[in-house]
Amino acid sequence: MPTRLPVLLLVLLAAGCGASPPQLAQPAGPPATTLNGGGEFTADGDSAIRYDRKLVPGGAQASVTAESSGGQTITSLVVEGFLPRRAYGAHLHTAPCGKAATDAGPHYQHRPGPASADNEIWLDLKTDTSGTGRATARHPWGFDPAAPPRSLVLHAKPTETSGPDAGDAGDRIACLTIS
Ligand SMILES: [Cu+2]
């Protein structure tokens, strides 16, 4: 009924004109969680470790933020000082970074199941001519506060999006612990 829309709008506006601001409905979901990580990658770093000197040049750095609230999650990644005009795969993983690239564990998943951009947090990017790249991912679900993602892993190749190798992105070249 299109003719009713303006009336509804007026009612909503009037309701919002009281002395106190209108209460926004909070969708049910886990409590708000914000995770951060950042730094310059070094071979012996604690929270920003590089495993590949060629694909992660000296001075390369990254910063990641994941904000989960009201049953929604927005995750953003910025990298600087990487190889110019090059595609990298990137995902959130379940465990903190360690000396071994495998220490970060498997991909973080919302529900145990398929490796997909809907069920996992993929932040693939392509750098510009100066080696800077950005990615943002949005998901209609929040983190489990008891088991949030613990790291961002950068990979040598873009992530396979379908087929038997879905989720694969080649070697792990750098890792950023998030908390
Ligand atoms: Cu990964």
Task: Produce a short descriptive summary.
By secondary structure, this protein is mostly beta strands. The protein has one helix spanning 5-15; strands spanning 33-40, 48-50, 61-69, 72-80, 87-93, 125-126, 133-139, 151-155, 172-177. Helices cover 6% and strands 31% of the residues.
Q: How does this model look, in words?
A:
There is one protein chain. The chain is mainly β and 179 residues long. The protein has one domain (28-177): Immunoglobulin-like, CATH 2.60.40.200. It has one helix at 5-15; strands at 33-40, 48-50, 61-69, 72-80, 87-93, 125-126, 133-139, 151-155, 172-177. It has a 5-stranded antiparallel β-sheet with strand order 2-9-8-5-6, with no helix packed on it. A 4-stranded antiparallel β-sheet has the order 1-3-4-7, with no helix packed on it. A hairpin with a 2-residue loop joins β3 and β4. The chain binds copper (II) ion. Residues 91, 93, 107, 153, 155, 169 line the site of copper (II) ion.
